[in-house]
């Protein structure tokens, strides 16, 4: 019964967590503990909904780039020296350190990547030669999905860069975002559980306040999205309009339509 209740809670709170920008790791953790099942999908990977990259093949993995090698090596050092830094700040420090690194030292990482890439090409050729027709078809499909996923990520970033208005929030989401920080000292899951219960028991008069705020937010969004779409047409980015409408229609499963 407890597991069932937790599942219902997580399902009901999903939109609120997205609105709050909670880490994807929270959702992955919920799945790993069996509290939530990912939506059904026709994709090759059952957890593709939660993962940025996913493959069922045993194809050789591309070697890390010179920059990624550098960050993997230096991230623990920066973290140890600056234990209070947020991940975004650590990433900025790593980028700055890489920019300031002398070319002679960068070359060490670049040469390591080149050496591994040569081995990677040899292993890939051998791997492909041993595949049967069905496996080749699956491998081709995986590559296609990766390309699609990259294109979707690129488009989503462009929507942000070009200032696409934020979608309107529900009264429930507004209530959650307003009170979420009050749950300091307890886990996000426990905070959501408490707020979910508080929302259920909220008096009709208080709940109406949030419902009205949500209605006002719908009007805000309608006005802003209209202006934004006109601007995109003006600068020749109708492709972003098509992608926005398609992503709204398909939701989380946009990748599956390709």
List the helices and strands and how they pair.
Layout: H1 2-20, H2 24-32, H3 66-81, H4 87-100, H5 103-129, H6 133-161, H7 171-179, H8 188-200, H9 204-234, H10 238-250
Q: Give a quick account of the main beta sheet: strands, pairing sense, barrel closure.
A: none
The share of residues in helices is 55-70%
How many separate helices?
Answer: 10
Structural class: mainly alpha
Separation of the first and last Cα atoms:
39 Å
Give helix and strand order, one letter per element, not per position: HHHHHHHHHH
C-alpha-based Rg, rounded: 23 Å
Q: What average pLDDT do the residues reach? A: 79
Molecular structure report:
The protein is mainly alpha-helical and 258 residues long. It has ten helices and no strands. The chain is extended.
Keywords for this structure?
single chain; disordered N terminus; 258 residues; mainly alpha
């Amino acid at each position: 019964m407890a597991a069932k209740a937790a599942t219902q809670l997580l399902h009901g709170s999903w939109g609120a967590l997205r609105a709050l920008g909670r880490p994807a790791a929270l959702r992955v953790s919920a799945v790993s503990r069996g509290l939530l099942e990912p939506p059904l999908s026709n994709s090759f990977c059952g957890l593709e909904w939660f993962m940025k990259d996913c493959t069922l093949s045993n194809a050789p993995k591309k070697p890390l780039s010179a920059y990624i090698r550098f960050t993997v090596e230096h991230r623990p050092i920066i973290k140890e020296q600056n234990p209070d830094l947020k991940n975004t700040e650590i990433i900025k420090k790593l980028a700055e350190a890489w920019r300031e690194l002398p070319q002679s030292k960068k070359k060490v990482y670049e040469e390591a990547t080149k050496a591994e890439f040569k081995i990677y090409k040899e292993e890939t050729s051998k791997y492909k030669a041993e595949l049967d027709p069905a496996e080749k078809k699956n491998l081709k499909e995986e590559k296609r999905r990766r390309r699609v996923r990259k294109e979707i990520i690129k488009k989503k970033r462009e929507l942000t860069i070009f200032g696409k208005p934020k979608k309107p929030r529900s009264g429930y989401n507004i209530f959650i975002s307003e009170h979420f920080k009050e749950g300091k000292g307890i886990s996000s899951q426990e905070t959501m559980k408490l707020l979910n219960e508080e929302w259920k028991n909220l008096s009709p008069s208080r709940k109406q306040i949030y419902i009205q705020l949500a209605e006002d937010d719908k009007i805000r969004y309608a006005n802003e999205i209209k202006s934004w779409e006109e601007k995109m047409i003006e600068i020749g980015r109708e492709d972003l309009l098509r992608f926005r409408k398609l992503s709204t229609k398909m939701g989380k499963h946009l990748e599956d339509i390709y």
